[in-house]
Amino acid sequence: MPDSCGSSLLQTSIGPLQLANPVLSASGTYGSGWEARDFSPLSRVGALVSKTVTVKPRHGNPPPRIAETPSGMLNSIGLENKGADYFLAETLPRMKTLCPRIVINIGGEAVDEFVELAERFCQAGVDALEVNLSCPNVQEGRLLFSTDARMCERAVAAVKRVANVPVFAKLSPNVTDIVSIAKGAEQGGADGITAINTLIGMAVDWRKRKPILGRGIGGLSGPAIKPVALRMVHEISRAVRIPVIGVGGARTAEDVLEFVCAGASAVEVGTAAFVDPAVLVGVVDDLARLLAGANTSIAELRGSLAAPIAAQASHAPTQGACPAPQRGAEGAASR
Q1: Neighbouring residues of 126: CB distance < 8 A, sequence distance ≥ 6
Q2: 196: preceding bond cis by omega (within 30 degrees)
Q3: Which CATH class is domain 12-330?
Q4: CA-to-CA dists, residue 300 to 10, 51, 143, 229, 265, angstroms
Q5: Torsion angle of the four alpha carbons 54, 50, 27, 169, in this order, in degrees rounded to the nearest 10
Q6: Where is 226: in which H helix or E strand?
Q7: Quick check: pTM over 0.85?
Q8: Are 10 and 34 a contacting pair, CB within 8 Å?
Q9: In the prediction, which pLDDT does 2 show?
Q10: Known catalytic residue: 322?
Q11: pLDDT confidence of residue 333
Q12: CA–CA dist 271, 253 (Å, integer)
């Protein structure tokens, strides 16, 4: 296997965090990385992102918790974990033996919980914090910190006051305007934005007349959400000055490069690891090959997506297309 992880073509940064390559694990899909240590050398991945850690242990949601869907999967885990005490004593030391860069995803239902976790993990020595403001499987899916820009700003600012490492805010796609939430995170001092978390969905067993997941709803991930994630990464990257970490449906090096072109500085690979636990390192190798073949680099490609053709360039819709709404009293309501 080629040692491509240190190639200058792959180097990137997320704020002050320097990475050998832009490939990260996605929180909640790879455990701590320890579970996958026998499949590939994880030292060659840009960074490992932990499963969400909470202050106290959480039992999670009732089963069933996972359901396959076309081009993806639904999960309703509910942030099951053994709590910060266990993670700091048992899991973090093992993570540090696997990868040069460790990002801890922290979750809470109150600002004080985020602050406590940030303080403890900064003292323990990690490379960055990813603040999970957006899990749809807790708090009855209310997503308090990622649906209100002011609440998002408040939570991020509180974490930043105690953190001595970069802080990334992980946002929900289940909002009307994710850009306004991203701006709130930036105003709170976030060093980067992680976009996106899962889309809220449902699976139904019509014969039993019941939802398949124990909680009814869950988070949709996998290739099915990639177009949504790409669009949101692009919108956010054009609206804020801080870096964006793309996540949502990336499986291949081609997917990663699409996210980078759309504006991402790094990309998390998640659901694909359920199919192939060695996928992350394979993506790193393929990235080096593709970039060399195209005579470009992550730094050069980042945010290089060409602007779309202006809508007013053509007033005549193509056959079968919906005509553009008319401006005016009636058209104003359709915007």
Answers
A1: 92, 102, 103, 104, 165
A2: yes
A3: alpha beta
A4: 10, 31, 35, 21, 11
A5: 70
A6: helix 226-239
A7: yes
A8: no
A9: 45
A10: no
A11: 38
A12: 15
Whole-angstrom Cα distance, residue 78 to residue 57?
11
* φ and ψ at residue 97, rounded to 5 degrees: -85, -10
Catalytic residue among 135, 152, 261, 322: 135
Q: What are the tokens at 18?
A: 């320097």
Give CA–CA dist 24/102, Å, rounded. Answer: 10
Residue 165 has which token pair? Answer: 């490492």
The Cα–Cα gap between 161 and 266 comes to: 25
CA distance 261 to 263: 5
Q: How far is CA 112 from the centre of its chain?
A: 23
DSSP letters for 27-90 = TTTSTTSGGGTTTS-GGGSSBEEPPPB-SS-B--PPSP-EEEETTEEEE-----B--HHHIIII
Q: Two tokens at 95?
A: 């993570």
Residues of the chain with pLDDT under 70: 1-6, 135-143, 309-335
pLDDT, tens digit, 9 for 90 and up, residues 281-295: 999 999 999 999 999
